[in-house]
């Protein structure tokens, strides 16, 4: 295994901006998420006997997703405060990748997109934080696509005391001029015809992985696609 690149620290001003953004956004989301979870739980208690199986499953899904989002926003607030609260547990990486992929392809209506991820291991990490990292990477793979139908492959291997997880896509690739900037907070890769976000996806992904004891880098990119590599400690 080749040596892994160290993570560059953010400049002071950019770091403070990203922390303020995370703290404000997470704080503002806490109240509506709490009410969504509460009302879903009340509806389950009141209507459980009258709903069919599919309706019950949908209502339980609403409650579970709201509770997951609550845990995530609390983790983001703690991260912004400089004392990240990480709750590691055994995570089925295969199931996590498939769930996130299913949600994203539904949201983006990219029906022809395919995911190759058979046989991924279980890893011990914080499912909310790592799930958001994976979501950022898969979202980018769908957004910055080439003319071909999007295809993403996820593979994991154990080396020493670390997991190395590679996420490869067949997208348009990243121009060499931008490869040193993609992890900068509030910087966005130019792409015509797309709705631009805040430019925090890869920057926050790197910060989350740092809190988890890991890191991320762009391992390869050309006209055939890009490959990111995530390092996570096994223990």
UniProtKB/TrEMBL annotation:
Keyword annotations: Kinase, Phosphoprotein, Transferase
PANTHER family: BACTERIOPHYTOCHROME (PTHR42878:SF15), TWO-COMPONENT HISTIDINE KINASE (PTHR42878)
InterPro entries according to UniProt: BphY/WalK/GraS-like, HATPase_C_sf, HATPase_dom, His_kinase_dom, HisK_dim/P_dom, HisK_dim/P_sf, Sig_transdc_His_kin-like_C
UniProt entry tagged with the keyword Manganese: no
Molecular functions (GO terms): phosphorelay response regulator activity; phosphorelay sensor kinase activity; protein kinase activator activity
PROSITE patterns on file: HIS_KIN (PS50109)
Species per Swiss-Prot/TrEMBL record: Rhizobium leguminosarum
EC assignment: 2.7.13.3
Lineage: Bacteria, Pseudomonadati, Pseudomonadota, Alphaproteobacteria, Hyphomicrobiales
Protein name in the entry: histidine kinase
Tagged with keyword Phosphoprotein: yes
GO biological process assignments: osmosensory signaling via phosphorelay pathway
Domain Histidine kinase: start-end pairs: 24-235
Catalysed reaction equations from the record: ATP + protein L-histidine = ADP + protein N-phospho-L-histidine
């Amino acid at each position: 295994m080749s040596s892994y690149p160290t993570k560059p620290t953010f400049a002071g001003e950019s770091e403070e901006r990203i922390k303020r953004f995370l703290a404000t956004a997470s704080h503002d989301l806490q109240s509506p998420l709490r009410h969504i979870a509460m009302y879903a739980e009340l509806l389950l208690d009141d209507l459980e006997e009258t709903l069919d199986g599919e309706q019950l499953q949908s209502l339980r899904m609403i409650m579970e997703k709201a509770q997951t989002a609550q845990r995530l926003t609390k983790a983001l607030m703690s991260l912004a405060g400089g004392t990240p609260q990480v709750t590691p547990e055994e995570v089925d990486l295969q199931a996590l990748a498939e769930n996130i992929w299913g949600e994203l392809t539904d949201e983006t209506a990219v029906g022809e997109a395919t995911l190759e991820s058979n046989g991924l291991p279980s890893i011990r990490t914080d499912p909310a934080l790592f799930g958001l990292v994976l979501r950022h990477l898969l979202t980018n793979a769908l957004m910055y696509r080439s003319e071909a139908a999007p295809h993403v492959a996820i593979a994991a291997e154990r080396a020493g005391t670390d997991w190395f997880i590679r996420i490869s896509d067949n997208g348009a690739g990243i121009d060499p001029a931008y490869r040193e900037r993609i992890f900068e907070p509030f910087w966005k890769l130019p792409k015509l015809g797309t709705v631009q976000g805040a430019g925090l996806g890869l920057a926050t992904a790197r910060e989350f992985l740092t809190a988890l004891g890991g890191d991320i880098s762009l391992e390869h990119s050309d006209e055939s696609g890009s490959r990111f590599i995530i390092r996570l400690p096994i223990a």
